[in-house]
Write a structure and sequence with these properties.
The chain is α/β, with parallel strands linked by helices and 682 residues long. The protein is built from 29 helices and 24 strands. Helix 5 packs parallel to helix 7, helix 5 runs parallel beside helix 9 and helix 20 runs antiparallel to helix 21. It is globular and about 80 Å long. The termini are far apart.
Length: 682
């Protein structure tokens, strides 16, 4: 393998600069501007020279420009590798070399993990999806030091195989002018080490190892946050990286360990700040001057790897915008239509719902028709952790279960109070969006008030200006506040590398030695062997939903006994993605009672049922929905159905709602039911 210095330091990106001394930073505003002076002699310059020239840009733009250049410099192998153990993952990362990389996803066997992997594959569209079946050779011990050594070894190999010290390799790159604007902070004993390792290797970021709280449920104290900040600063000094102001060598921190999204800073109820808006400031406990933008990985190992790989390999090139705000007063600053026009003018395909189309009924209808297929979601709503209010609906009617399914992974900016107050709870707005496949999320952990959010059109313009995500969603000189970032803080709207036409020999060698099974081929072999569940899983993981639908219909017609819970749930999801709403309902009925309770499966059935009931007055859909009200939104679901039932019989509709009364758990639910009854009675 060639050295990292040779691969990266001499890589040409097509940037041209004039030998004339008049050339200035406008190059970074428009790389084609150098072509405006044909009489001047043009010369190609090395990546290091272009990288160093970022110093001419404004300080708050430098991190994004550097991150963008690193992203564009990747040489992307058109495969996806799936692993299911730490040693396999370490082996796979170790086979990266400099800018030569391919996506690696971690399968923990859960339905959420499978859906995340399939969602990534549909967006990335690889030539092959390969599941590693041979246990890796990398070391993965039990102690923190053993695991730190294993992570360091893999990081070093990913940057330059012949150099066992990643700090030395990054030092060589630094000598050429190439310095990543970020640092990854990893707890080797925490589940997020794998996602952190990917971002470090993918962006040539150094790593600081520390022991984190390993708890994303609990708020931090101000003292804990300050101690963590001091430990990170100590690590940066040891690395010899300048970090104390925006625009220097370190402008971003990724926290790759489980940590709460909130810091409790005082005795009052609202005395809370976002962890990622505190870490990276001169005094974490008091909210001093910012020297870095921060983001935190979230979930388990599989999810953190998904978050990292999406950020590294998937471009942001389309948008879904939902503006539920009024069209007067200060709300106008967050206008979704203006946001859409800004992104459309930049060449981004957009789907915009604004007044008068942004009602709750419209939101549910859009979610029921098909998954959202956009890489950026921007939404403005009012509400709380577990509901969102949209026009023309009673307060509290918008519930997490009706959030749209996502066909591809997405980054998200949402102007909504408390959406990330409990992201570990799937029954909250933020938790459901994350489960749906959002890999990069900006939202509030407490009540930030409207002006605490950067206006939505401004966020769009800042992203288009190549500010990194965490910088774009924060005010430049703002005080520490309540807007958190889950995911990679350095993600930009740049291209994600140059895609290769074939698999290089060094990667082919890794695949062969790891006994990689090509799922595109294996699915057909499993089908011939009548392993229908295995075949369907491989079809799902390779993005072949058409094959899943055809096979699902055939099995339901001829071999329904061959459909187990795992098989049925995969058919439910694939059928919905392909617009086969009736098939969703048929496959749902094949599930056991226990399997029907899965939130994602149940939500999908409800969306398909709503579509069938609205379009075709389907009684089958009505029966399934009546008998499967969703936990946490039973009254809202029941009221929706009762409103349809009252067309035929108000007494039947009222009776249906009253049947819920024995199940109520508190006075709040009783009040909600009484209000629903009032509305149904008219």
């Amino acid at each position: 393998k060639a050295s990292a210095l040779h691969i990266v330091g001499t890589l040409l990106l097509g940037f041209c600069v004039s030998d004339a001394s008049s050339q200035d930073s406008s190059l970074f505003d428009d790389p084609s501007s150098a072509q405006e002076a044909p009489e001047q002699v043009q010369r190609s310059v090395s990546f290091g020279e272009v990288f160093a020239s970022v110093e001419r840009a404004e300080p708050n733009r430098r991190a994004g420009l550097r991150s963008s250049l690193l992203s564009q410099s990747m040489q992307v192998v058109p495969i996806v590798v799936i692993v299911d153990s730490p040693v396999e993952y370490l082996d796979a990362i170790s086979s990266w070399e400099g800018p030569l990389r391919y996506p690696i996803l971690f399968d923990d066997g859960s339905e959420l993990s499978r859906e995340h992997i399939a969602r990534f594959v549909r967006a990335f569209e690889p030539e092959q999806v390969i599941r590693v079946t041979k246990r890796g050779t990398s070391s993965w011990g039990r102690s923190a030091q053993e695991r730190q050594d294993a992570i360091s070894t893999a990081l070093a190999a990913a940057i330059q195989e012949s150099e066992p010290d990643w700090e030395r390799s990054l030092g060589v790159l630094k000598d050429t002018g190439i310095v990543s604007p970020g640092v990854v902070v990893i707890d080797p004993m925490d589940q997020h080490w794998a996602g952190g390792l990917a971002l470090a290797a993918g962006r040539f970021e150094p790593v600081i190892f520390l022991s984190g709280p390993q708890n994303h449920y609990k708020e931090l104290t101000a003292a804990q946050a300050e101690g963590m900040n001091q430990s990170i600063e100590q690590g940066l000094r040891r690395l010899g990286r300048s970090y104390d102001q925006i625009g220097d060598e370190v402008d971003a921190l990724t926290l790759a360990f489980r940590i709460g999204v909130k810091i409790k800073t005082g005795p009052q109820d609202r005395d809370r700040l976002a962890t990622t808006d505190q870490i990276g400031r001169s005094n974490a406990s008091l909210g001093g001057m910012r020297w870095a933008w921060s983001g935190q990985l979230f979930g388990n190992t599989s999810t953190s790897v998904y978050q990292a790989m999406c950020s590294l390999f998937l471009p942001i090139d389309s948008a879904f915008i939902w503006d539920g705000y009024p069209t007067e007063g200060q709300w106008v600053q967050y206008d979704g239509t203006e946001t859409g026009e800004t992104l459309t003018a930049a060449g981004m395909q957009t789907e915009v719902f604004d007044d008068p189309r942004a009602s709750l009924a419209g939101f549910k209808g859009r979610a029921a028709s098909s998954p959202v297929d956009a890489s950026l979601i921007m939404m403005n709503t009012k509400g709380s952790p577990n509901h969102y209010d949209l026009p023309h609906a009673p307060t509290g009617m918008g519930k997490p279960g009706d959030i749209p399914m996502l066909d591809q992974p997405a980054a998200m900016h949402i102007v909504h109070s408390f959406s990330l107050s409990q992201p570990f709870q799937s029954k909250t707005v933020g938790g459901r969006w994350l489960d749906r496949g959002v890999y990069l999320y900006a939202g509030s952990v407490d009540e930030p008030f409207l002006t605490g959010f950067v206006p939505t059109p401004t966020v769009a313009r800042r992203l288009l200006g190549q500010l990194p995500f965490a910088a774009a969603i924060h005010y430049d000189d703002g005080q520490a506040w309540k807007i958190a970032v889950i995911g990679d803080p350095l993600k930009t709207l740049s291209a994600c590398g140059v895609r290769l036409d074939s698999v290089p020999p060094i990667i082919e060698e890794y695949i062969q030695t790891s006994d990689g099974a090509v799922l595109n081929t294996r699915a057909k072999e499993l089908l011939k062997a009548s392993d229908f569940t295995g075949a369907i899983e491989d079809f799902v993981l390779t993005g072949e939903d058409d094959a899943v639908v055809r096979l699902g219909k055939a099995l339901l017609a001829d071999k329904p006994e061959a459909i187990d819970d795992r098989c049925a749930s995969m058919i439910v999801h694939a059928a919905f993605r392909k617009g086969e709403h009736e098939l969703v309902l048929e496959a749902f009925e094949r599930l056991s009672i226990e399997a029907r309770a899965d939130e994602q499966v149940l939500d999908t059935m409800w969306m398909a049922g709503r579509y069938m009931m609205t379009r075709f007055s389907d009684e089958h859909a009505m029966v399934l929905m009546r008998t499967h009200l969703r936990e946490g939104q039973e009254i809202q679901d029941a009221e929706e159905l009762a409103m349809r039932m009252r067309r035929d019989s108000i007494s039947e509709a009222v009776g249906f709602l009253e049947s819920l009364r024995p199940t109520l758990k508190n006075q709040s639910q009783a009040r909600a039911l009484n209000k629903a009854l009032e509305r149904v009675r008219g």
